[in-house]
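ok trying again, last paste got cut off:
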Amino acid sequence: MAGTGYEPAGEASRWAATHHCGSGVTFCGHMPNSEVLKILETDAQLLLHPAKEETFCMVALEAMAFGIPVVAGENSGF
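nice, full thing came through this time. structure:
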């Protein structure tokens, strides 16, 4: 997981550990778009986009362009 709050010892990582659901999840934190694209192209099996609201989600479109399934919130701009 990438972005603010998704650092290795960040809020999401701690929540996942507490709820025993972080196995197989990599918490990367903030990273440049070019790094996210490298991960999408080489390692990603799924894009989880947990934003509550976003008007235009470029990273979801980029993931779809690589053929990666996307899971997003009901109000995340799709």
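cool. DSSP finds three helices and two strands in the chain. The helical segments are 11-18, 33-42, 58-65.
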